[in-house]
Structure formats: structure tokens, C-alpha cells
Amino acid sequence: MPKLNQNFLNLKQNYLFIEISKRVNEFKQANPDADLIRMGIGDVTLPLSPSVVEAGKKAFDEMGVKETFRGYEDSGRGYDFLRDAVSGYYKSFGADVPADEIFISDGAKSDSGNISDIFASDCPVTVTDPAYPVYVDSNIMGGRKVTLTDFDSYDAPQNGIVYLCSPNNPTGEAYTLEQLQKWVDSALKNNSVIIYDAAYEAFITESDKPRSIFLTANSRKCAIEICSLSKTAGFTGTRCGYTVIPKEVMLDAPDGLKTPLINLWSRRQGSKFNGVSYPVQRAAEAVFTDEGQRQTREAIRAYQENAEIIMNTFRDCGVEFTGGVNSPYIWFVCPNNMNSWDFFDLLLTKANVVGTPGEGFGKNGKNRFRLTSFNTKENTLEAMKRFKNIL
Ligand code: PLP
């Protein structure tokens, strides 16, 4: 029999969502009439916007006609029409991102997990804690040592990689331009590469919070950016994202020469990825039209209103929190500094509300809890009423 990749034995079991569903199921069995409100899952709840659906349908019709049918996409990097649209989107908020540095993908999870393929197995990795678990897991699978640091430590490793996520999952915090510049300066000083996850950029409301790392000075020399339409436009079930790799970002080769990172990523994708389907790319293109932007922003506004309801409740109750303003996530200190699993049980049994214990995102989440604004307004109002009651 072949031997397994021993690095997998170093992965922590992902107990979080298994344990949540176990506890919820037990509660439901014991209390079949309880009206549960789920505010733990980071998935959108509103449907695709009409212009996106129309563009996708039209593209599928084209696929059924001999003259307009398409097979493999030649480059696998995404059609020009979509890469141009993404480049135009960046321009709309002041970032200069040429279309030939954009790679279309099936989402930010794949890209943020796969990008580690191109780094040496002894490359040091820094991840801010708490974090989206993919950054740590993908590097453990690759046999790399991962160091955890604080969101605002501004301490990039020497000749290594650092994962940043802003607005952050789970804390909802977003870097200001000055803070992000400190990370870029640290990466440049230490010859490291920043992998910047901008999956929640569309939720930013404050003008001092950049929507892209490419709004900082000199970031083109040390940063790549991963983004997605999952949260921007409700594509969690449709699947489309993009990664930007500036031509200036270099990696060291053993012969002492430098190799553009973009060449390695092109090679990696060329070997292991055959592109995103034509209809999905047409649907994604529609997100970036004026009408598409107007419609998708409406859904984001609805989630922002829910976040506002949660934040107001927490302010009324004196609960310390981050997020909500530039994010669908509200991350708070458990009342009386309770352990996050104990608070999970309290919220479930006394308020019939399901959230996510912070412990699942890293050691800094031990006494923290995450609620999301991906819900209806009615459910959010009701959940907050019950939350107030148990406090
Ligand atoms: N990055 C972060 C920080 C996320 O929270 C998520 C999903 O929750 C993703 C990436 C994955 O997004 P996608 O649906 O594009 O794979």
C-alpha cells in the first residue's frame, strides 16, 4: 500500500462545525418545538441578482448552439471579458490592477489553499490569530511551520509568507490604510510575500479602510490578493473568484536567481486547473456592470442593516465587540468572559440561537463568539430580543 502524506497527521481535527451540529441536533431532539435561529454560518442567504441570473442563462443558451458553443478555455486564466471587468472594478475604487495579472478561479478557498504549492516546504509562514482555518491547514499539509501572530503585530517573517485577511473572518476588523502599509513595509524589509484575502472587501463602509492591498505604496513588489464573488454577489453556490499577482513579486530560486511568482502560479494552474465554466464567467461579468453593482449592493445593504441591529443590541447591553461596521461578522467578548463553548450552550438552550464559538478560529478566540448578519431582518431582530433577555 502507498504511504500517506504524514503532514496530514499534524492537522488538528476540524471539530468546530461537527461539534456545533452535534450539540444542535441533541438540543432539537430534546426540544422538537424550539424555534431555532441560526446565526453561525458564514454563508449568504439572499439569491443571485436578476442581471446575474439573466447573463448566466443567456450564456448557457449560447453553449447549446453550434456557432457559439465553447469547450476548454485556452488560457485557463479566465476570459478576457471577465478579467477586463475585474480590472475596471479595481479602478472604480482607485486601484490599478492590469487584466493580465488577474487569474479567474472557482473561489477564494481554492486559491488561498492552493497558493502554498509554489513555496518551499521550509518557508516560514505567519498567520494572524484568530483566522480562517484554510491558511493554517494548507501549510500544515505542505509540511511548513506556521507561526501565529496578532492582527496588528506588523511582523512579517524573514523570507517567508504572511496571510492577512481584511475585513477579517472571524473578527470583522478591517485595516486602515496606515495599518496595512505597516504590514507592507514589514514584508518589504523582511523579503516576504503577503497573501492578502479580500473576500469581504465589498462590506467596507469606512473611507479610511482600503478595499485592496494595492492601494498601499510599494505593495506590487510583495503582495498578492485573493478575492471572491461569494460574499460580494452571493456566489457561494455558483463559484467564482479571482487572484491578482503583480509581475514584480519575486521568489528566490536555488541558483540565486529570482523568479516571478506569477510564472509559478501560471505553471501550477496550467497543470492542475482547467478554468471556470463559461456561463459562470458571464454571470460574474454581470456583477461588474452598473446594473449588477446596483443590484448586488442592495443585498449587501440588507446584511449591513442586520449588522447594525446586532451592533445596537450589543451597545445597549455593554457587550464589547469588533466588526459589523465593515463586515457581516460581529465578534464579541462572551458575557462574564465565559468560555466560548459554554456561551454557545447558554445561547442555544436559553435563547435558541446558534452562533459560532470563537475557539474554533484559534487560541485568541477562547472567550469570543461570532455572529453573522447573513439572515433575514425578522430573524435578526428576534434573535437580538432573545439575546437581551438572557443577559
Ligand atoms: N476567505 C475567507 C476569509 C472566507 O471567510 C471565505 C468563506 O467563508 C473564503 C475565503 C472562501 O470563499 P469562497 O466561497 O470564494 O471559496
Outline the structure in words:
With 391 residues, the protein is an alpha/beta fold. It has two domains: 13-42 and 291-390, Aspartate Aminotransferase, domain 1 (Alpha-Beta Complex); 50-288, Aspartate Aminotransferase, domain 2, CATH 3.40.640.10. 39% of the residues lie in helices and 15% in strands. The protein has twelve helices and 15 strands. It has helices at residues 15-30, 50-63, 80-92, 108-114, 134-141, 177-189, 230-233, 261-272, 278-287, 290-317, 340-351, 377-390; strands at 37-38, 102-105, 125-128, 146-149, 161-165, 193-197, 223-228, 241-244, 250-252, 258-260, 321-323, 329-333, 353-354, 356-357, 368-372. It has a seven-stranded mixed beta sheet with strand order 2-8-7-6-5-3-4, with helices on both faces. α3 (80-92) runs parallel beside α9 (278-287). The longest helix is centred in the C-terminal third of the chain and has 28 residues, at 290-317. The termini are far apart. The mean pLDDT is 96. Pyridoxal-5'-phosphate (PLP) binds next to α4.
For the terminal residues, how far apart are their CA atoms?
Answer: 56 Å
- Computed over alpha carbons, the radius of gyration is 21 Å
Query: How many domains make up the coordinates?
Result: 2
**Helical amount among residues, as a percent range?**
25-40%
DSSP summary: helix tally: 12
Widest sheet: strand ordering: 2-8-7-6-5-3-4
Task: Give the structural class.
Answer: alpha/beta
What would the CATH topology of the largest domain be? Aspartate Aminotransferase, domain 2
Strand content: 5-15%
Could you list the spans in which at least 5 consecutive residues all have pLDDT below 50?
A: none
Give the overall pLDDT as a whole number. Answer: 96
The count of DSSP E runs of length 2 or more, i.e. the number of strands, is 15
Order of helices and strands: HEHHEHEHEEHEEHEEEHHHEEHEEEH
Taking the sheet with the most strands, its summary is: 7 strands, mixed
Q: Indicate the CATH architecture of the largest domain.
A: 3-Layer(aba) Sandwich
Taken from the alpha-carbon principal axes, the silhouette is globular
